[in-house]
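Per your request, structure below.
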């Protein structure tokens, strides 16, 4: 019984797989560039497979992959295939060319299986990487060239790679700067640095070459490498001449930093002084305008014992004056009052200009025999 059940189960599985193979009626392929943005269109699956949107929805169309990462997404409402996440060709395939990945679109009722293959086109998204000479931070690496070197002497070789593929990985080498450009050259395709003339005793011991490595992509990407060359016949001579290479670089860096710092400080002080001067000018101008348009009265100040230079003498703080009066309204004679009946005006320094009159104990107006009198200043 168990054997019959096993045969029956195997038969059902075989029938199931044969059924799936029979319903496979489409195989599509797309080619896209790498580094496409999320949501970018890959292709119209419904149109390419000859399916309508109702079939995609009723068949619950979905993508099945053998990996945990799903790089594409099927939009059943539109029948299109889009990028779910950025695809990096170098991360996906490395050095393998061509680069591609596959998955299946499955529909149910009835079941259909449609393989889909995506080819990834390489983009020039990586610059060249220099492998030799190694660029070490503070240490010094120099190639030694004897003074007896002839024309075409191989000094060293710049080695670089590009992780891109195709023509994007084709590299070219150019000599950008050199202490003596008439002494060295760089091979365009192989990166070999060779002498182009006979080395003489007049050539400087320290030679610095700057080589630029470019790829063939559009747009082109590049990397720069510095090669130190020592023209000497002995190693001690090299040490004595090259010990200050790093020190010179550090000195130049420090000098540049201090110059920039000094320029920034001077600029800041100048701007600060300029702002302060302008602020003071504006403040004084505003104060003068306020006083000019003000309607407040100006109260003069008279110091004690103020001297009247235009008068006949000095005015005292206490002013005495005499009052003259007429004995009869029909007469014009003046009659001077007595000394005891003089009116005295006293200036109160604490007041705001009010004159106070101090009369004597017996006022002239209080005399019984005097009519109404009019005071006049004599």
């Amino acid at each position: 019984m168990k054997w019959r059940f096993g045969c029956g189960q195997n038969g059902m599985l075989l029938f199931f797989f044969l059924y799936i193979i029979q319903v496979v009626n489409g195989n599509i392929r797309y080619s896209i560039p790498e580094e496409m943005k999320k949501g970018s269109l890959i292709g119209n699956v419904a149109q390419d497979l000859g399916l309508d949107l109702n079939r995609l929805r009723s068949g619950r169309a979905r993508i099945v992959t053998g990996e945990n990462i799903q790089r594409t997404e099927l939009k059943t409402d539109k029948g299109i295939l889009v990028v779910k996440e950025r695809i990096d060709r170098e991360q996906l395939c490395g050095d393998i060319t061509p680069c591609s990945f596959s998955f299946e679109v499955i529909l149910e009722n009835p079941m259909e299986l449609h393989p889909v293959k995506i080819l990834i086109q390489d983009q020039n998204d990586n610059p060249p990487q220099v492998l030799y000479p190694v660029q070490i931070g503070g240490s010094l690496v120099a190639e030694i060239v004897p003074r007896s070197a002839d024309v075409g002497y191989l000094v060293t070789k710049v080695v670089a790679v590009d992780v891109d593929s195709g023509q994007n990985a084709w590299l070219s080498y150019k000599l950008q700067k050199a202490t003596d450009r008439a002494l060295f050259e760089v091979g365009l395709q192989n990166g070999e640095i060779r002498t182009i003339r006979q080395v003489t005793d007049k050539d400087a011991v320290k030679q610095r070459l700057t080589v630029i490595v470019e790829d063939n992509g559009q747009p082109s990407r590049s990397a720069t490498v510095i090669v130190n060359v020592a023209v000497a016949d002995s190693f001690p001579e090299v040490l004595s001449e090259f010990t200050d290479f790093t020190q010179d670089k550090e000195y130049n860096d420090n000098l540049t930093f201090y110059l920039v710092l000094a320029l920034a400080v001077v600029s800041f002080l100048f701007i600060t002084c300029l702002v302060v001067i302008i602020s003071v000018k504006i403040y004084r101008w505003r104060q003068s305008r306020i006083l000019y348009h003000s309607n407040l009265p100006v109260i003069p100040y008279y110091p004690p014992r103020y001297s009247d230079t235009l008068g006949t003498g000095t005015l005292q703080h206490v002013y005495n004056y005499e009052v003259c009066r007429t004995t009869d309204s029909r007469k014009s004679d003046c009659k001077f009052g007595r000394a005891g009946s003089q009116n005295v005006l006293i200036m109160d320094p604490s007041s705001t200009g009010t004159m106070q009159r101090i009369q004597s104990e017996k006022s002239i107006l209080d005399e019984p025999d005097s009519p109404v009198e009019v005071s006049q200043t004599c």
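The radius of gyration is 54 Å.

Regards,
D.
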